[in-house]
Amino acid sequence: MSSIISSLPFDPTLTYINGEWVGSSDSQTSSIENPATGQVIATVSESTASDLDAAVQAAHKAFYSGAWVNTYSGAQRRDALLALAMSIEDNRQALEHLESLNTGKPIRDVRVELDDTIDLFRHFAGYADKVEGRHIAAQTNAGLEGYTVKVPVGVVGFINAFNYPLCLLAWKVAPALAAGCTVVFKPGPQTPLTTLFFAHLLHNTGRFPAGVFNVVLGGVAVGQALVDHDLVDKIGFTGSVATGKHVIRSTASTARVRATSVELGGKSPGVVMPDADLQRTAELVISGCMSNTGMNCNALTRLWVHRSIYAEFLPLLKAAAEKLVLGVPQSEDTEMGPLIDRRQMDRVLEYIRIGIEEDKAQLLTGDGRHRVGQEGYWVRPTVFQNVDPQARIATEEIFGPVLSVLQPFDSLDDVIEIERKSEFGLAAGIFTRNHSDIARFTRKMRCGTIWVNNYNALYSYLPFGGFRNSGFGRELGYESFDGYLATKAIIDDITY
Amino acid sequence: MSSIISSLPFDPTLTYINGEWVGSSNSQTSSIKNPATGQVIATVSESTTSDLDAAVQAAHEAFYSGAWVNTYSGAQRRDALLALATSIEANRQALEHLESLNTGKPIRDVRVELDDTIDLFRHFAGYADKVEGRHIAAQTNAGLEGYTVKVPVGVVGFINAFNYPLCLLAWKVAPALAAGCTVVFKPGPQTPLTTLFFAHLLHSTGRFPAGVFNVVLGGVAVGQALVDHDLVDKIGFTGSVATGKHVIRSTASTARVRATSVELGGKSPGVVMPDADLQRTAELVISGCMNNTGMNCNALTRLWVHRSIYAEFLPLLKAAAEKIVLGVPQSEDTEMGPLIDRRQMDRVLEYIRIGIEEDKAQLLTGDSSHRVGQEGYWVRPTVFQNVDPQARIATEEIFGPVLSVLQPFDSLDNVIEIERKSEFGLAAGIFTRNHGDIARFTRRMRCGTIWVNNYNALYSYLPFGGFRNSGFGRELGYESFDGYLATKAIIDDITY
Question: What is the superkingdom listed in this entry's lineage (chain B) (predicted)?
Fold first, then answer.
């Protein structure tokens, strides 16, 4: 294990600010654990408010005075990102091992995450040389035409979550850099290691001027300093609703306003119609819920099953959940890893207790032993059945491997009406071949992603984000690139 | 010289069809010359109509049944094109030497053309994974929505000109392949060598299935077979107006219609206003006319100079034209090369004669020795002054280093009215700082490109093409990519 850390090509006790590797300005450190075992694997620095200020100053200077925006063409930014993608690809094995060690993710999963990360940088590199406004012909006054000019929004501060440390970094950083922004990036405090490796690779391409990309490490204090900083133009945040609301308020509580884009979680429903392929759907649903040990904002966590197929379907769900293989992350057979830390594990176990004792919900899987082992933070896939749609386990985000199968339903339209009132609006899934039901569901649901006969499929080119308490703004797809641009309109009286 | 040919990593007596290197099916060959010296440098095959048919069949099968469209994702096509760009970059010196040998272009110019070629493949690679239709909300009937799906147009046949053999190949092939089309490509008969080298590099990436890209060699007969072939979906042609009209008619004279995009030349005007920076403008104008020895469809070949600056400006033009350095292409000091072959040289010399003897136009530069030397096809930069706007040399495309400075003008609006009636409409240039004049000129001229205070600047991202006899369709820019896609509209009554 420690050979992975000791053989890193960079010093993980430092961080990367203004093109240099530096320690914390007051020598603070924090311990990083391997959640599969609970053991400490590394020590990293913790950035102070003054380190954060240095990072923001560097990003600000790089944006307003440096080469990245003022000299580099879009094609040069494109080629820098392509070189970075190539470097990530060349170093992918080391990144996979490091990510798996820091998060407990199965090695099979991190391999897919590296595929995605490399693709994300190649995909968004291809936007860097295609920044375009539009010319708008005069519609009323014959002399007054307009055209738009798109410019990068400026310094972007990111606060990342712990559930996909490298992959979500790519979601955010690839389009932001492609658009010509500069970045100050704070990984989740539990999961800084692949972020630091990424900074090392970026630096070594030699194509990103100092200050274009900076890493700060830490928790609430550093995050607060970032969202409060008046030299930051935009904040991108992924995390809980409560923290997200606080972040939003912070961006509007100092001398300057910062733009925001937030991704805040969900309680995404699935709907199984009578004509669904039951076996295939059971597997899609369990995967949709349990992937990444349930630590997906878009996880399918409340399931509507039509009354006519309820009795037949539930045993299939139970079997699919119970056959998931938990095991050491490095094993090719392992399908599910641990939760990220003790706090998440305790939270999930507490929700299971709430489900049993307070919601009085009935278990479909398991026997009462929800935690697996004594080392690390392992919880079994857990499925409740016949759950009241208003139960706590059915309405509050658990962020763990817990699925609530709701009481049987009769009418899709009633389900749609209930779901449209959810406080969340991130994703939903429907399983049916009926074209009209699909049309009604996709047109009436108020959420950012609707999966039809699949779940969790996300790619660099498909926009993803929320409605309501799931947040706003989009990641991935053209919309995310456009989110790092600001529009100027030039209005010209050409008859002058 | 011949060491460049003898050290080629492929056999130039063969061509590339259906993933294989093959000779002509009747062993026909043709001689390729170095226009700087007039000497034969290589022998290549000439494709028969049966070779052409094999190439089209291969491209057709590759499109309708092969992996390129039916299995490959856009990201895979993107990565294939990126690998090809990297390969071109790795082999750029050899390509530069070969292009300079085959065309007589100065080595400084081919270096820029290789920069452009590499950028073109990287730029259009970035569109391959971004093919998007749009969803169209119902505007009238609440149930009827639509969405568009973009699909590649199919098999594209290209007939290339001789003036930028590799660079214009990139203009055409990069967006066509990025869009998922398959290609049958015919280079200008004088200039096949870098096309063959390109095919070798494409094949050697191992990422382009057989039949995706094919090369046929020859002149009128092979070109006719290509524009007549019913398995070709679209023809892209660059060449003269006369041949272009014939091509268009041919695409509509068999059982099936082929779509067309044609770039047919021009007689592009420049306008020098009283407030222009005269020295800088003189250099831009001469460069705009004489670049590539005048063999640019968009060359600035008829110049309007305001009466108030006429006497002051013409000596600056004369000096700029007379200081152009002609010399061996391999020399770093050489600024201008020969014409492409004897036929072009004779045509240019004939137009100079017509200007002097028929149009009775007065020379500004040179004496009577317009041809330089006895070897190769060299003609001096030639500028006429006080030319009648309706003179033959002022209205017919010469495609050589000959500029007609028209009689002085007084009113920009009169110039605009005259130019809007031109049979051509490819490009124009204006030199002034007056915002209102620029606005009027850019909004009222009917041509594909208008250069303001510059000339000839073209990049992968700026659409280029004609009005009227300069042709239709656009190369470069998003519009060119879209030209290799066809739109399907899906109209869905979701209330059914």
Answer: Eukaryota
